[in-house]
Amino acid sequence: MSPQEQTEQRRGQQLLFITLLFGILLNFPLLAVFDHDGKVGGVPVLYLYVLLAWIAVVVLTGWLVTRMKHEE
């Protein structure tokens, strides 16, 4: 297996991990933890959690893709 193929396979595995992480973060048990009447700065806690999880996944994916481009 060539180094290029190994890099592509590794990138695919890391992107799959990020996808699974996002699926876990937005799964029922964790959503239920944040589903209550509390508010942070006037924003419901559940909405804030979903927004922060989404931002974290976008940032992590962007960092991973740009890092892999620099390694090529």
TrEMBL record:
Lineage: Bacteria, Pseudomonadati, Bacteroidota, Cytophagia, Cytophagales
Transmembrane region(s): 15-34, 46-66
Official protein name in the record: DUF3311 domain-containing protein
Keyword hit for Transmembrane: yes
Organism: Hymenobacter jejuensis
Record key words, sorted: Membrane, Transmembrane, Transmembrane helix
